[in-house]
Amino acid sequence: MKLSPYLFLLTIIISCVEENTKNNSVANEESVTPPPITETSLVVLGTIQDAGSPHIACTKSCCQDLFMNPDKNKKVVSLGIVDPENNKKYIFEATPDFPEQIKILKNYSPINEKETPDGIFLTHAHIGHYTGLMYLGKEAMNAANIPVFAMPKMKMFLEQNGPWSQLVNNQNIAIHEIKDEKEILLTSNIRVIPFRVPHRDEYSETVGYTIIGPTKKVLFIPDIDKWEKWEKDIVDVISKVDYAFIDGTFYNGEEINNRDISEIPHPFIIESMATFGKLSSSEKAKIYFIHFNHTNPALSEKSDLAQQIINNGFNIAKIYDVIKL
């Protein structure tokens, strides 16, 4: 039966309304506020390498669809800590996704009167790890004395170079100098120990952190050149913690074919899996790869290489993961 032009138009309108209703329903399901955390816990707020995904000027298939249909869950690497007993929350890294990440962290907190965290811990002066501080300035939030924890060279870099020095001069941030291997007591439930790691230190040192909760310890090393360049034995370091979020930037060297891989050294996931290959299953289960480049097949759970990571006994960090400390 041939439809009249008016009936045909009505059919299209009804179909569009139904599709919009469906899409809104999905969007609403995805935006539901998570239940507040009731015990001291860690929240994964991002897992992507500094420049994000999609990556600027990328013409590969891994990015093309994302330019047209961005994935709101692909945020730059960051961890949050919530301590409900003391009504405190902290964030590790100030990324380009900082505004959304502090909102996520606030939503997990039992008392949501403050947008900003009670402290920001920086690892180093590469763009994905500190540039989110710009949102604390007078062009944006015009925050008041937000504590920023940074190593001596990182502190000096922020104080002596604009626009970051403006944040200091306007008292948007208050920088707390931290020391290698010196413990910081944040609350009765949270302690943090920074430690130096080898990386491309053009403007600052690079540190990882041990985050200590009431019953669990977490290792956080989003950036390091190679495990063998570190004076410490990574296997021994992992043996002393309960969870280890470690550099998984590249799966292997083959995924980068337009740059000199020697200029951006990281431990490939295949190298790390070989290093940790003889560990017990319980030790392997501590390890969560994080800080993924946009080319890394670990970003897709359905990829064969991502499944290989899981089948070998390791984990792939996911945004919104919550771990009780």
Your description of this structure?
With 325 residues, the protein is an alpha/beta fold. The chain has one domain (35-324): Metallo-beta-lactamase, Chain A. The protein is 27% helix and 19% strand. The protein contains ten helices and 14 strands. The strands form two sheets. A seven-stranded mixed β-sheet has the order 6-5-4-3-2-1-14. Strand 9 and strand 10 (217-221) form a beta hairpin. The protein is globular and about 50 Å long.
Q: Would you spell out the secondary-structure blueprint of this structure?
A:
Layout: H1 5-30, E1 41-46, H2 61-68, E2 78-83, E3 88-92, H3 98-108, E4 120-121, H4 127-130, E5 146-150, H5 152-160, H6 164-169, E6 173-177, E7 184-185, E8 191-196, E9 207-212, E10 217-221, H7 234-239, E11 243-247, H8 269-275, H9 281-284, E12 287-290, H10 304-311, E13 315-316, E14 322-324
Parallel strand pairs: 3-4, 4-5, 5-6, 10-11, 11-12, 12-13
Antiparallel strand pairs: 1-2, 1-14, 2-3, 7-8, 8-9, 9-10
